[in-house]
Amino acid sequence: MNRVKTTNLATGLTGKVAGVNVVKPSSGVMGSSRITIRGNGSLNGNNQPLYIVDGIPIDNSDYGQAGLWGGNDGGDGISSINSEDIESMSVLKGGTAAALYGSRAANGAIVITTKKGAAGKVSVEYNSYFTLDNPIVKNKDFQWEYGQGYMGMVPGAISPLNTGMLSWGAKLDGSDVEQFDGELRPYVAQKDNFKNFYNNAWMLSNNLSISGGGKDTQYRISLGDQRANDLYPNSKLERNNITLNLNSKPTDKLSIQASVMYMRERAQNRPNLGDLIFNGNTYMWIMPTSVDIRTLEKAVNEDGSEFLPTSSGWISNPYFVAYQREQKDRKDRMIGSLQAQYDFTENIYLRGKAGGDMITRRYTDVIPMGTGYSPEGSISESTTFHGEFNVEAIAGYNKLFNSTWGGRCFYWLEYNGYLVGQSQCKW
């Protein structure tokens, strides 16, 4: 997975494991992905697996999807984790996952183990990568024979604004006609609108890690910085990760493992999806063949109102959406775990583990005055907090009778809003 970088850790599983279906986001680099293991287990419930990081269940809720009246993809939880910190990932299917992690893992589990330090000299590792994405549009998907208008008439023959979305005009002949804004322009096909509006998306990631330690204690510290600009203008993401792993064996009988992950994420102007409202992508596909998208670039009229491409306020100007509307979300997250194991004898041990996942997200949405569908404008602010804490205790017995026959038994108690006791033996 580290050979081909992705902004979302989950999308790196595409094509890697049999029975695991990954649906990549259609909302760009800031979107959420969807994973199902061996198909959907429910018609109306959440079919995604449970994620386990260093033995601790984490939250993978998404933060909004486009509904009947539009909206944006607020991203998900797994996308915050830095792929450079991952040592291994295991996919548990069916009853195996439920037996280990309860009903939350009924749809399977993805177990993630982060990198640890190793005894020896101090090791310094630096990784950097850059990716560039270009919008691909097949011109054969559009017709280039008829321009803006209605009933075979050019816009100047009828109200220009009322034909703002229609390409039922006369044949394109290069003559000057009155367009939607009342200006005279050549009546020709505009085949470069997508190229002229969308940006080249790019992503830059840098990661620095330092690891080392002695015989009794090993450590690893990792710092990550990821920045991405989406195809849609003025849409961007910044993510910073700090990870600390510590392994220690103070005595021959006691061993301790600790890990802390901090994630800071800042997103600006996530692309709107679904309905026409503030969805600049929609107009890019329905705009008339003869209209140059750059004629909408001024975005705002002299009175401060939105420069509309049609007579309908519900059809948003793509440039107005990109540069006049303010939409931001800020997420801070901490995942931590602590494990201690005491070996009473060579065969009998007691292990305890505790960990938590704490998320704070702040969202700001500013619809400016003069917006076509909402002339008065609005401002909204919201803050959400999610946290969970898990505790696990295991008493185990291991015995190797000979080179071919051995076994182990253990009993564990796990607290995750409820108390569970269960024993298991394997020979």
Explain this structure to me?
Helix content is 6%, strand content 43%. The chain is mostly beta strands and 427 residues long. Strands 8-11-12-13-14-16-17-18-19-20 form a 10-stranded antiparallel β-sheet, with no helix packed on it. A 4-stranded mixed β-sheet has the order 4-3-7-6, covered by helices on one side. A two-stranded antiparallel ribbon has the order 1-2. The chain is elongated, with a radius of gyration of 28 Å. The mean pLDDT is 84.
List keywords for this structure.
6% helix, 4 helices, mainly beta, 427 residues, single chain, elongated
Fold topology:
Elements: E1 20-23, E2 34-37, E3 50-53, E4 56-58, E5 71-72, E6 86-92, H1 95-101, E7 109-114, E8 120-133, E9 176-178, E10 184-186, H2 193-197, E11 201-213, E12 217-229, E13 236-248, E14 254-268, E15 272-273, H3 280-286, H4 318-323, E16 326-343, E17 348-367, E18 378-400, E19 406-415, E20 419-426
Parallel strand pairs: 3-7
Antiparallel strand pairs: 1-2, 3-4, 5-15, 6-7, 8-11, 9-10, 11-12, 12-13, 13-14, 14-16, 16-17, 17-18, 18-19, 19-20
